[in-house]
Specification:
The complex is a heterotrimer of chains A (about 425), B (about 270) and C (about 290). Chain A is an alpha+beta fold and about 425 residues long. Chain A is built from 19 helices and 13 strands. In chain B, helix 6 crosses helix 8.
Chain lengths: ~425, ~270, ~290
């Protein structure tokens, strides 16, 4: 009797010990990740769900996604990083911020560069170390109304075009109906042709929709103009905006605004307002983010009539940046977070992302999804051929903002290019790191 | 007495102008995305009320939770603010405590931009483990509304005729007794006034909510901002969210309207 | 004598929740904030190093700080005067029985119920030239004006602020009006005084302290104006519509310089501090 009791106790005890040994393997670690609301966050949720139900179980990791509002995500992360918080394990970042965030992120090791778009993966390296994994790649397209541009080839319109370009730009130009080969002169002349001030028969009130608000994201768009004209922020380490190319780029915007090729209200326009101008039929062309394609191709006046071209000019001329996720240096769950990141850095995981509406920076996936969204083909080509980013170090984010502040008065004609160019160079000099 | 229709007309004009943003929101929330993007007067009725459905629970935006949080935070702030400010106001006005000094601090706090406090509060709350909690946001919002509450209560107490309290004092009543049995009953209106304004202001808080909440304590203001995405502003959805978010404060204010007015003035003199 | 001491003790006890709250929640953050203003504290730099008064010297010599301050003072004063005046007039209108008073009262309060951050987004929509209802209406009447044009933008921003906050002034003035005993109006009527005289000679003088407080509160609050202007113009073009609130926010969260931002905040308080004794006086705390 006593022996049996002892025996039962022994079995119970060993079961307990065995259970305790096994239990930790089943207790999953929770990894918290910050992401943007909107299509990116919604798409990522699907990837997270798939992981938690599948690979995550093997890794012993449960990922929880937290969405913060787009405008304040970075402000909040700044506060968190400053406070050396360990509340979140994975931060949302971007190519233009990774320099500022790098001191607070852990390096991500073992990433296979080849599965990504080169511009995207490289843009997230700081001092050759991979500090974040790319999610969506953003770049710029020149959107235009296909029906209107093709109508330029008629004899009557050609004559009018020549006359208007002479009036507005001072040189006589013939219509170029292939926007992919446009120079900025072609773009401006086309815009002038479709501005009712110069052509009362124009179906659109203005030719161009200019995002000229004092906003750092608008500087990114303006950069395309700068590079398309052969300019650059720095040359041999020295600020390069107070030069012919820099001032010419400023003048393009200034011309568009002062010659009224765009609405005077565009002094406070950014992404959403540019779209509204196009979909309402009040403008017919704009240099704009690739993400706009889904709205433009399906709504309003641009529905089914929106074309994509590379930003005008020569050489590398579209800004490219990648949204990304990085590992919090102060996270208390580095190992678990690393496992999740490893999963994210695979084509398989990101296939879920694309299926749910995301635009992963992986050529393999983008090519297969062209049928859902025609602009994906352009993303692959342009990112490779024309993609560029300034990669100006830790203060890059700040530079965009400062340039927007310094240049926007000239964009809207309140100052001349000469007046602002030297201030721009001064800003570039003081923020160089 | 002749009905003063001119007053209706004037007040109505003001009301119309003030309500333009809300009218805009309601109008937008009932249109399809295509109509919204095509022009201001393009009308295509959104038969499925998709914007309202989105605002109430699409794609992981847990609006039910957002609303619950907002209500709890606002109500909690009202209670805490009142509990702290009313006795203090009495102490300052009638018992000469601190006086100018304390009010000076309160005013100074209101001038300091919220940005000054963001990181310190975040650190403090993390240390106290109240980050991303309703408790934490109640504390933060109480901080924001203290000044106004102190000013309103102080003003209201000053307006009470001192004779009543003096008489009670002479009769041997202690300060607490006077506060409880005489002052407090007369403060009904004052309480309602502070209540409504504090409720409204904490309902509207955004910056503190963004930094001090993440997923558990997110209020409606932050939730609605989720509709500003990098693919475009979801005008329809955010309009629906704005329309819905106006309802609780509106109901609160309408109910308290009767007390609200008498409150800020505590008309104890009127016959 | 005993009563006096007991009073002092009771005074302390009554004020203790406030003192507790302030010391627990306010003292340490202020200490930290001031410490930050005296340090070199940037997001892009890992180390926080003491910097003495460097930030303050930098702020005082930054033209952007002063132009933001100038713009904000101008904006705050004009907006407060407008809102005070409109609030006062509106309160006078409401200070009587009229059909629909209850409904209209609630309607008039709606703007302060919408969070400023959401109000800014709504403004952005309804003022949009291409899809907004306001320009839509204006264009129908043939007014093709550009409301954000340099000539008009200040006026536009003040109007938007007035739409948002006049209700607040209205509410406080209306309440103060209720405090004036009916008898005074009645005897004035018997004496044959006309409405305008009543307002000028009786109402306004009685209301003076309340009006001063409301004006001061609104003035202080309009110094913190941020959301609407930031969302609509970003402080631009350039820095032409940049308020001090926007300046501080950008310094903290875009430049990532928390030291400077804190220093700017402290400087702001120090500059506005001289106004405070005047406000306190309005309370006439010495007179029970």
């Amino acid at each position: 009797m006593r022996l049996r009791k002892l025996f039962t106790a022994a079995i119970a005890a060993s079961a307990l010990v065995a259970g305790m040994a096994i239990a930790p393997a089943y207790a999953a670690t929770e990894v918290k990740m910050i992401l943007w609301p909107g299509p990116e966050g919604e798409a990522m949720q699907k990837v997270v769900d798939a992981y938690n139900a599948g690979q995550g179980k093997k890794d012993g990791v449960v990922v929880k996604q937290v969405l913060l509002s787009r405008d304040n995500t970075f402000a909040k992360e700044a506060a968190l990083m400053k406070a050396k918080s360990s509340e979140y394990d994975i931060y949302f970042t971007a190519s233009y911020l990774v320099g500022q965030h790098a001191p607070y992120l852990s390096e991500i090791k073992g990433v296979n560069d080849k599965i990504y778009l080169k511009a995207s993966i490289d843009g997230l390296k700081v001092n050759k170390k991979q500090m974040a994994l790319p999610l969506d790649t953003s770049l710029h397209f020149m959107y235009y109304r296909t029906d209107l541009v093709s109508s330029l080839s008629s004899a009557a319109n050609t004559a009018k075009y020549k006359q208007i370009s002479k009036t507005v730009l001072g040189k006589e130009l013939s219509p170029n109906t292939d926007p992919e080969t446009w120079s900025w002169d072609d773009a401006l002349a086309t815009a002038a042709f479709f501005t009712q001030k110069y052509n009362p028969d124009s179906p659109t009130k203005y030719g161009y929709a200019l995002p000229a608000k004092n906003l750092l994201y608008n500087t990114m768009i303006w950069n395309d103009v700068l590079w398309g004209l052969g300019g650059n922020w720095y040359k041999n380490g020295q600020p390069n905006l107070n030069t012919a190319s820099g001032k010419a780029a400023i003048d393009i915007y200034r011309t568009i605004y002062t010659k009224e090729l765009t609405s005077p209200e565009s002094s406070q326009w950014e992404y959403a307002e540019t779209n509204a101008a196009l979909t309402s039929g009040n403008a017919m062309m704009a240099l704009q983010w690739n993400a706009a394609y889904s709205e433009l191709s399906k709504t309003g006046a641009t529905s089914g009539k929106v074309g994509i071209a590379a930003p005008p000019g020569k050489g590398q001329r579209t800004h490219v940046h990648a949204l990304a996720v990085g590992l919090n240096k102060y996270s208390k769950k580095q190992a678990a977070a690393q496992k999740w990141m490893k999963h994210l850095a695979t084509v398989g995981a990101m296939k879920n992302y694309a299926a749910a509406g995301g635009v992963p920076s992986m050529p393999e996936i983008l090519t297969t999804m062209v049928s859902t969204n025609a602009s994906f083909a352009n993303i692959i080509t342009y990112a490779g051929k024309y993609g560029y980013s300034e990669s100006a170090g830790a203060r890059e984010f700040d530079i965009y903002a400062k340039l927007a502040e310094v240049l926007s008065p000239a964009w809207v004609g309140q100052k001349t290019a000469d007046e602002v160019a030297s201030a721009a160079d001064a800003a570039l000099k003081s923020l160089r790191k | 007495m002749k009905k003063q229709w001119w007053a209706t007309f004037t007040a109505g004009t003001f009301a119309l102008i003030f309500m333009l943003p809300l009218f805009g929101a309601i109008y937008t929330s009932l249109r399809t995305d295509n109509a919204i993007a095509s022009g201001p007067f393009v009308w295509e009725f959104d038969q499925g009320f998709t914007h309202y459905r989105n605002a109430m629970g699409a794609a992981g935006y847990d609006f039910e939770s957002f609303f619950k949080n907002s209500i709890m935070i606002s109500t909690g702030t009202v209670i805490l603010t009142t509990l702290i400010s009313l006795p203090a106001a009495y102490s300052i006005v009638r018992l000469g405590f601190g006086g100018a000094w304390l009010l000076r601090i309160a005013l100074g706090l209101r001038i300091l931009p919220a940005v000054f406090f963001i990181i310190p509060f975040y650190k403090l709350f993390t240390n106290l483990a109240i980050v991303d909690s309703v408790r934490g946001l109640v504390l933060a919002n109480t901080f924001v509304n203290l000044t106004l509450a102190l000013l309103i209560f102080s003003s209201a107490i000053k307006d009470l005729p001192y004779e009543i309290e003096e008489a009670a004092h002479v009769d041997g009543a202690g300060v607490f007794r006077i506060l409880r049995s005489i002052v407090f009953p007369l403060m009904g209106p004052g309480l309602a006034a502070v209540g409504v304004l504090t409720f409204i202001f904490s309902w509207s808080d955004y910056l503190f909510a963004v930094v001090l909440s993440s997923s558990e304590a997110t209020p409606v203001t932050v939730g609605a901002a989720n509709f500003v995405t990098s693919y475009g502003v979801r005008w329809g959805d955010i309009s629906a969210a704005v329309t819905l978010s106006v309802l609780p404060p509106l109901i609160f204010a309408t109910l308290a309207q009767k007390y609200l007015v008498k409150g800020l003035s505590s008309g104890a003199i009127k016959g | 004598m005993i009563r006096q001491r007991k009073d002092k003790v009771s005074a302390f006890v009554l004020a203790s929740p406030l003192l507790l709250f302030l010391s627990a929640l306010v003292v340490w953050p202020i200490y930290l904030g001031i410490k930050t203003s005296l340090s070199r504290d940037l997001l892009s730099e890992f180390e926080i190093t003491p910097a003495g008064l460097d930030n303050f010297k930098a702020i005082l010599s930054t033209p952007d700080f002063w132009s933001a301050l100038r713009f904000t003072i101008l904006f705050a004063v004009v907006a407060t005067l407008l809102e005070g005046l409109l609030g006062f007039l509106l309160a006078l209108v409401f200070d009587r029985k009229f059909p629909g008073k209850r409904t209209l009262f609630s309607m008039v309060l709606v703007p302060i119920m919408i969070a400023p951050s959401l109000m800014a987004v709504m403004y952005r929509l309804i003022l949009n030239e291409n899809i907004g209802i306001i320009p839509g209406f204006l264009q129908k009447f043939g007014w093709d004006i550009s409301i954000f044009d340099q000539k008009y933008v200040f006026f536009t921003l003040v109007c938007l602020d007035a739409i948002q906050y006049t209700s607040f002034a209205f509410l406080l003035v209306y309440a103060a009006l209720q405090n004036i005993p009916q008898e005074i109006y009645e005897s004035a009527a018997i004496d044959g005084a006309r409405y305008r005289q009543v307002i000028a000679r009786i109402t306004i003088p009685i209301l003076r302290p309340a009006l001063a407080i409301i004006a001061m509160l609104r003035l202080i609050d309009s110094f913190r104006t941020f959301d609407t202007i930031y969302i609509l113009t970003g402080g631009g073009p350039g820095t032409s519509t940049q308020t001090i609130g926007i300046y501080i926010y950008k310094t903290a969260f875009i430049t990532g310089d928390f030291g400077m931002a804190s220093a700017a905040s402290v400087t702001l308080v120090l500059l506005l501090a001289p106004l405070m004794p005047w406000i306190i006086k309005q309370f006439r705390l010495d007179v029970k």
